[in-house]
Amino acid sequence: MARASVWLEGKARKGGRTGQPSGLDRDRITSATVRLLDADGLDKFSMRRLAAELNVTAMSVYWYVDTKDDLLELALDEAFGELRLPDADDGDWRTQLRALATEYRALLVRHPWLSPLAGRYLNIGPHSLAFSRAVQRVVRRAGLPAHGVTGAISAVFQFVYGYGTIESHFAARVAAAGMTADEYFDSTMDAVTEAPDTARIIEESRDLMAARGGDTVAEMLDRDFTFALDLLIAGIEAKVSRPA
Amino acid sequence: MARASVWLEGKARKGGRTGQPSGLDRDRITSATVRLLDADGLDKFSMRRLAAELNVTAMSVYWYVDTKDDLLELALDEAFGELRLPDADDGDWRTQLRALATEYRALLVRHPWLSPLAGRYLNIGPHSLAFSRAVQRVVRRAGLPAHGVTGAISAVFQFVYGYGTIESHFAARVAAAGMTADEYFDSTMDAVTEAPDTARIIEESRDLMAARGGDTVAEMLDRDFTFALDLLIAGIEAKVSRPA
DNA sequence: ACCTGAACACCGTTCAAGT
DNA sequence: ACCTGAACACCGTTCAAGT
């Protein structure tokens, strides 16, 4: 059976990091990968394009990396390294939880390729693990019964993952269409309102959209995210006082 | 700009559904697509394999469908059609919300290709919309202030989406490895415990795993899901009584 | 130790041609 | 109206060969 993750490969890493004719090493390859993923998206990324970016033949990269999957796992963890984690276990756990959730959401939106990759791989690189540990430490401090901590972690961070996924996907579509988010939203709404089936459900939810408020797409997304996060924190507090 | 979804194509659909030499039509193509996706997964699926399955040339399919994306959107909505939705607006909203969340989770796990596709497309097919409407009707009945309804819907169903995503991904890995879920879990735990970095975080969460309990992977997943859903419902109730 | 070139077995999609 | 065959511009990866 194939190894389940780059992070579980044997100790020995190929190559030191000096003196290569082309100046290649894992770090440079990983950075270039992130750069290309940001610029062109996951679908367009290929080993051949990466090689071209590095002024090297497609197969050179395979000296440093076994497969494309391994490379994408490395890029995934590199991106997780951008998260700013709380550095002390003090202060209000609610504040820290909100900060972690907000950081994660922003990361997913900043790198639209991250959500599919986080859903595909094991997420056991060093930066992913640091994030997991930070999450765990914060949620522990909420005072939940021990049997509920893992479930509460899921509730909060699977929500953020799901929310960030649809949001980043929306952002990617906007970029591809060369519009602003608000223009894209309006034009999609128009298209959807023209088809009778979809028009009906839009009509049904008009009051909810109005009540939520927000003049721009960005504002609407922020309001929903904030309310949902408040709801989750309220849920945790309820579970602390009534463990059920 | 390209049309944003199959569901927004112009009225005129090509072809009636009788008399075709090969007996092809959209429904047959969509069903075959779902069958292949279930059997071999999203990565292995191709227009050429589908054509072979239908005893037809690769290009015949393009008479009925403009692109592979369109076809995948059709398959996505076909799968959403499997969801059993509550047929009346009575009974406890909590019960119905739990039922909807459980159905959606099971759907994601049953079709591991669904989660990536739901994250990629617009989800405005008839069955997707029916699901959205059902969700909206149930959450409305919880009695939240109007400005919080869309956020609460996000909280619950983005959580389920995220949870179902990692769970289905786990199931797909298990299947690919030809093991049972418990065997796969144990072997991954072993591999992760051998690497010192990952061993540390496992060690840190040992108490939480023990407190959660559950003798099998399936049980652990069920417990976390149930607790998280309870937490979300408690959060909704808290927001009903203290709207903030 | 590191990099290249050619090749294999694939892709999605276009287009002109058949019936 | 529906289907085919050949072709284009790609893929990830293997392998033998170069330096």
Description of the molecule:
- The structure is a homodimer of 244-residue chains.
- By secondary structure, chain A is mainly alpha-helical.
- Chain A has 10 helices and no strands.
- Chain A has helices at residues 26-40, 47-53, 68-80, 93-110, 114-120, 126-140, 149-177, 181-194, 196-212, 217-241.
- The longest helix of chain A is centred in the last third of the chain and has 29 residues, at 149-177.
- In chain A, 36% of the residues are buried.
- The mean pLDDT of chain A is 93.
- The interface between A and B is large, with 71 and 71 residues.
- Chain A binds a DNA duplex (19 and 19 nucleotides) through residues 14-15, 19-22, 24, 46-48, 56-60, 62-63, 67-68.
Task: Describe the structure using short key phrases.
homodimer, about 240 residues, mainly alpha, 10 helices, about 65% helix, about 0% strand, flat, DNA-binding
Poorly predicted runs of chain A are none
The count of β-strands of chain A is 0
Annotation field: number of helices of chain A? 10
Largest sheet of chain A, in brief, is: none
User: What is the chain-wise order of helices and strands of chain A?
Assistant: HHHHHHHHHH
